[in-house]
Amino acid sequence: MAMLIDGRQHRFRLYLNGTASSSTPFLKPYLLFNESYIVAIFIACLFLRQQPSYAVYMAYRSVYLDKYRGSPSQRAHFAIFIPNSTNDNPDLDKEWKSKPCMGTVIHVVGEPLRNGYTLEFKRNECSTSPDIDELVFLGTVDSTHVHDPPNPDFVRETHPRQTLEQEIATIAHPPRGQDIRAPIDGVHTKRCQEWTMECLSRLEEQRLISSGAVDIAQSHRDAPNHGIFGQSGSSKTPGSAAQ
């Protein structure tokens, strides 16, 4: 018996055969399932081990960091991109321009001085949109926690649907009235990058996304003073910006 997890293939695979034994080791899946659930599956497998072969599939969905930069002097806009179930594949981060797909963009829009930011969900956004410069694979989530649009129509809304979006909606938006001349510190000054990092941290804490997503996104952040009025700095200093 073997229990294998392949996040890039978006499948949880459980294989059994007649030679299985209770001592066969198994791999723990990305901390997305609690231990009691894994133990229950393992015990059930022992009862079935005399059968020739079985396979159990649990669907995963990819999660990507969506990056857009209007000009080299601006801070990159961060968003979370989740492909629709019919468009998801393990090589999307390499093929999203040559093989367009649709998905949901989750981000905050606005500005830090007068109005602040608002949470927005863009359903059926195409990966070839001019608002997407790069997609970076962050990890996977259980498909039951993700909302799939019922039709292909583009929709822009503020209402969170399903567990993942509802959890993201608990993260406070970057406030208005910020000092636009101050470097980003993630506390008094924050923009969409800092909000996205807080969302990913929350999802990891709740085990709603595979471990490592925060570290990947962190490596793509801009330096604290880049794109800030009156400041100068390199466009990207991996891991240097405050979370």
TrEMBL record:
Task: Give the span(s) annotated as Disordered.
Answer: 222-243
**What is the name listed in the Swiss-Prot or TrEMBL entry for this protein?**
Uncharacterized protein
- Composition skew (Polar residues), residue ranges: 231-243
